[in-house]
Automatic annotation (TrEMBL):
One Gene Ontology biological process: fatty acid biosynthetic process
Cellular localisation: Mitochondrion matrix
Name under which the protein is recorded: (3R)-3-hydroxyacyl-CoA dehydrogenase
SUPFAM superfamilies cross-referenced by the UniProt entry: NAD(P)-binding Rossmann-fold domains
Gene Ontology molecular function, alphabetical: estradiol 17-beta-dehydrogenase [NAD(P)+] activity; quinone binding; testosterone dehydrogenase (NAD+) activity
Keywords: Fatty acid biosynthesis, Fatty acid metabolism, Lipid biosynthesis, Lipid metabolism, Mitochondrion, NAD, Oxidoreductase, Phosphoprotein
GO cellular component terms, A-Z: mitochondrial matrix
Amino acid sequence: MAAQLRLRGALALVTGAGSGIGRAVSLRLAREGASVAVADVDEAGAEETLRALPAGEHRAARVDVGCARSVEELMRGLQAHFSRPPTVCVNCAGITRDEFLLRLSEAAFEAVLRVNLKGAFLVTQAVARALVESGTGEGSIIHLGSVVGKVGNLGQANYTASKAGVEALAKTAAKELARYGIRCNTVLPGFIRTPMTDKVPTKVLDKFAAMVPLGRLGEPEDVADVCAFLASDESRYITGASLEVTGGLFI
């Protein structure tokens, strides 16, 4: 999809931007005219994404989304550099620690919820506070959930729980923040080719693709296009929504 510069002049924060969907979202928003703050716990990955962005006032930063102090430092740095808070935030940071329920450790369960759910909460709270304090009167916060948060998935009790929580978080935030002009929505990807799928055998990926009515796995760009729409004024009357990007999986 050709960029339409729907975000010209906007400042966007993307977490988990060092690879996969987060990188694709960063590229898409930049092509739409936004200045993008590329944030990731992997500094090298964030810098690589930064170098891939089209010309503009962009910035890379390290953040551990599961740590309140790290998120606060990120926000202070962004506002000091750009002299304003981000009006677009896309929470892409996420990890997996797959194991069947009977063998899943407490540490693996907590690690996934720390990044995927607590991280989404901390970043959303920090961005929302900054927007409210600035009196901007607008904002779009987008969460990356997952369709498996709705239907469950073998070996992913921790991941599915975290993604179900993210969707609920976004709906509650949408209700609380609407009075400030801040919209909150969730994108629910299906099977998407990302670094998380690199370790999956080809025959397994082919089996997944055969389950999708549109006949293929999704690409990060498929998700990024939807995020760009939700970030733009074209979705100005959409909040508290969950948009599936699944190729028809589970319909």
